[in-house]
Amino acid sequence: MYFEHNTILKYRLRIPLFPVDEVCPVCHKTCLDSFGEHAVHCRELPGLKYRHDLVRDVLFDIFRCAGISAKKEAPVNFLTNPLEGRSTLRPTDILVFGWVGGKHACVDLTGVSPLVGLGGSAFTVGQAALKAASGKVTKHEKAYLDNQHVFIPFAFGTFGFLAPEAVDLLSRVQRVMHSNVVTPRSMNVVFKRLSFAIQKGVAAQLVARLPTISM
């Protein structure tokens, strides 16, 4: 835990973590940048899927603790391509029953670095997560609405930024938790758990690619 804590602090403070031009020891395809941006986007395991699944599992557990009926990795069986006669959608990360006006809500998680797609443009806090959420809505929302479901993109940044849809969802869950469960009345308990999960997932990606002797 101490090792992960130091690693995530270095990542957040933009302190170099890796030797320049060293090949990623996991994917063996790309050179690591010194600040760890490749590490948090490398698609080889362990890493990207672990971070996604960790945040999903924590979010699902928060629903469970709040007394909210939900299902993890729920199949979505309605048709999205009538010509093919089948659904082209993957199982939704979390299906929340009767969440919006009696309709089931499908929560789709995605995590991105705040530096993705920055190029030479000016940096704006949260722009990568906002773009990811918008892209998810454009791609999936109509199919869900056509089948009487609600689509909720849950986009987060590796530095902890949450897109508005994620903030709204967690805020409502927090209110439900206060109503259904006897807990200390900390308005941040749900957000703290999610934030910790995000950073733990990012730390795991970074640590898996560090040299044997580091720090």
Account of the 3D structure:
- With 215 residues, the protein is α+β, with helices and mostly antiparallel strands.
- Helices cover 40% and strands 15% of the residues.
- It has helices at 2-13, 48-66, 127-146, 164-180, 189-207, and strands at residues 70-74, 92-100, 103-112, 149-157.
- The protein has a four-stranded mixed sheet.
- The two termini are 14 Å apart.
- The relative contact order is 0.18.
- The model has no long low-confidence stretch (mean pLDDT 83).
Write the layout of secondary structure elements.
Elements: H1 2-13, H2 48-66, E1 70-74, E2 92-100, E3 103-112, H3 127-146, E4 149-157, H4 164-180, H5 189-207
Parallel strand pairs: 3-4
Antiparallel strand pairs: 1-2, 2-3
Helix pairs in contact: 1-5, 2-4, 2-5
Give the count of helical stretches.
5
For the biggest sheet, the summary is: 4 strands, mixed
Order of helices and strands: HHEEEHEHH
Structural class: alpha+beta
